[in-house]
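TASK: fixed-backbone design
INPUT:
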């Protein structure tokens, strides 16, 4: 997806992609991520990233010609929920449990990201020539969620809805709740990532299930899928717990 020196076009919603191999590239990504979180992407400069990483600025430019390339590197491995959806969309078993598992995984991933989803989206929209795969991955995730919902309609598990509109609402709920997780409004309850992920999946399934009181039975089925070959997602603490 990218050259050896700069991050090329990469894809999807973000999560921390730096490994612990100690390479200058990964150290730059780690330090840049910390600065993005502390100061915001727009306010962080390449010189600050270089100082934080203990490198000359020219060394940072060797690996990443532009700040946007570091952001792209953060996106490159951010495909967990898409991979879960790609695995579960064609899988056998109740569509309701598969839908719950995908939405829960997506919410966990959004909360685990070093930056707010809306910040990544803002940068991607401002530079579509560099971040086209971001939108391609999002479109594919939307398509897969739509397909699972359609399967639920066909099986009689879900009520009669527009599958595409329902998928849009479900993913938008995840995005909105990750925002509340990161920046809760004064006077409102603070949620952990676990809370947000469960609340979002619960809300969507409760609105779609033909028999809403079947939701308690859907949760353990979805949990079993999440701990299968697709891989479970680790718990993420709320900002207050960090």
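OUTPUT:
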């Amino acid at each position: 997806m990218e050259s050896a020196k700069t991050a090329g076009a990469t894809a999807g919603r973000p999560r921390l992609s730096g490994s612990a191999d100690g390479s200058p590239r990964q150290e730059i990504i780690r330090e840049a991520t910390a600065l993005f979180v502390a100061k915001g992407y727009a306010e962080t400069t390449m010189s600050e990233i270089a100082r934080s990483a203990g490198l000359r600025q020219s060394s940072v430019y060797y690996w990443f010609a532009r700040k946007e390339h570091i952001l792209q590197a953060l996106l490159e491995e951010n495909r967990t929920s898409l991979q879960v959806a790609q695995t579960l969309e064609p899988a056998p078993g109740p569509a309701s449990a598969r839908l719950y598992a995908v939405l829960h995984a997506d919410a966990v991933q959004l909360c685990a990201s070093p930056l707010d989803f809306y910040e990544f989206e803002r940068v991607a929209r401002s530079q579509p020539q560099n971040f086209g795969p971001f939108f391609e991955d999002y479109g594919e995730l939307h398509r897969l969620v739509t397909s699972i919902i359609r399967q639920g309609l066909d099986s009689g598990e879900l009520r009669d809805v527009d599958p595409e509109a329902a998928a849009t609402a479900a993913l938008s709920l995840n995005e909105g709740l990750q925002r509340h997780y990161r920046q809760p409004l004064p006077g409102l309850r603070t949620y952990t990532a676990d809370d947000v992920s469960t609340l979002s999946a619960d809300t969507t399934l409760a609105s779609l299930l033909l028999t809403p009181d079947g939701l308690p039975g859907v949760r353990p089925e979805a949990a079993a899928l999440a701990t299968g070959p697709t891989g479970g997602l680790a718990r993420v603490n709320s900002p207050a717990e960090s």
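COMMENT: The CA atoms of residues 153 and 200 lie 20 Å apart.
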